[in-house]
Amino acid sequence: MKNILRAEINRALNIKVVICILFVGCCIIFDSYNDFIMLAKSGTGYVHYFFWNSALGGMCRTYLIPIIAVIPYATSLAEDINDQMIMLAVTRSGNKKYCISKYLVGFITGGIVVAIGTAMLFLGLSLIFPVASEGYYDIDIGDSFHDWIARYDPAKYFILQTVFGFCRGAIWAGMAMLVSLYTSDIFVIIASPYCMMFAWIQMCRTIGITDKIRLDMILIGRQVIHNSADTIMIGLIGTISVLIITGILFIHKFLKEIRLGSFI
User: Where are the transmembrane segments (predicted)?
Assistant: First the structure.
């Protein structure tokens, strides 16, 4: 298991990771591009504003970052299938070891890409702007967008944004890995998070699921449940639950396809 994990990790460490990390920060900034230019010139902005604005209705952070999380590694299974290398890899490492290592490295890579990209943007912006406006006086610990810790505990706000970035990237990369068992088309796999996110949002609007209980709204930093610490715990529990369910489905589907000889 260690050998196959090491091999897959080495495969995941490629130039695409670096490019995607940079694009994550660009996506968050691009949701407030005009504001960023104006505030950078005047020096009157603050870091929290850019994360607040992208969480409020940022198209790039909502739809493009999930795609970016998939690009570095989540298409690797489809690449093995297309290159007709999957049976050789499975023969060398074993069915379960191969699919488990694929899934683990897949969602971890996606999570790390978004987490590092978010952290780098946060630290970069903090060199130019304060984390939060000093005018934040009439705020409560349970206010949306984590206004309170942004103002009074910037270090925890940085950790929150980084952790939630990892959670979002991990979920979408894991789901894309599952999609790759149904199609080996690389572009379909890369676009699948966009399609799933769009379908999820439309479904929530149609059946009336409130933002307060939506995991995606929690992980993007829009909703606060009781306080920021509780929200982080809820977000982590939700993320782990989704990853476990997706992982079980991935392993079950992979082993079924092996038994059916679908990869031959």
Answer: 12-33, 103-129, 158-179, 186-203, 232-251
